[in-house]
Amino acid sequence: MTDLLSREELAVDVTEAAVRLLGCTAVADTPEGAVAVRLVEVEAYRGRDDPASHSYRGRTPRNAVMFGPAGHLYVYFVYGMHFCANVTALDDGDAGAVLLRAGEVVSDLGVARVRRPTARRDDDLARGPARLASLLGLGREHNGVDVTDPASPVRLLAGPPVDPALVRTGPRVGVAAAHELPWRFWLDGSTAVSPYRPGRGAAVTRSGREK
DNA sequence: TCCATGATGGTCT
DNA sequence: GACCATCATGGAA
Fold first, then answer.
1. Would you say the C-beta of A205 is within 7 Å of strand B?
2. Nucleotides on strand C with an atom closer than 7 A to protein CB?
3. Could you report the per-residue pLDDT of A60-74, keeping only the tens digit for each?
4. Per the count of CB atoms within 10 A, which of A48, A73, A109, A196 is most buried?
5. Does some domain include residue A170?
6. How many domains does chain A have?
7. CATH code at A115?
8. Which string of b and e fits A111-145 if b means at least 16 CB within 10 Å?
9. Residues spanned by the domain of A104
10. What's the DSSP call for residue A146?
11. A79 touches strand C (CB under 7 A)
């Protein structure tokens, strides 16, 4: 049994929290059974100085969790049909979060396939933030959940430590603002990393897939 | 394997 | 009323 991540480990700046989350395992209890996913791709969003962050224009009912303590889920609804899940970072009053973009299913593969029957390959099960959230069964009701609480329906397990040489960074996916910030982090070699897509209005670097 | 496209609703200007 | 931290699908290559 691996240890849960602590709130203190996440109460740091968003880029540090992002790297720290790589290789960690998200576990969720779903109606079909428990699903565990090893995180291989994340993105950092921060405060009022990051125009791409939901917290950029200040606190609203929607983004309130980002301003709260670290180690909590910030789940939001996007494009009229999908949910995306973040883990909050930084301390109370300082808005920050790390978007969980992709992961590899550790267990249970059978449960995962039942939950996401449309996945063409196993690597697609949690490839992309909305797919990952869908696989873990995350929705509005999970907004604000403490992922460092053993009693929580969604938890974050630490490590094992990843080889720092495998950590890659690049521009965030699908964001127009601040596309020059290399605040996307992923583990090199994973086939579950989502394809890069420039945000609307960002400089279009055709076929911009990283290797 | 790649790419274009439609679906769909909350949030903030 | 525009803009989204997107995905499944189907047809082309």
1. no
2. 3-9
3. 999 999 999 999 999
4. A73
5. no
6. 1
7. 3.10.300.10
8. bbeebbeebeebebbbbbbbbbbbbbbbeeebbeb
9. 7-164
10. B
11. yes
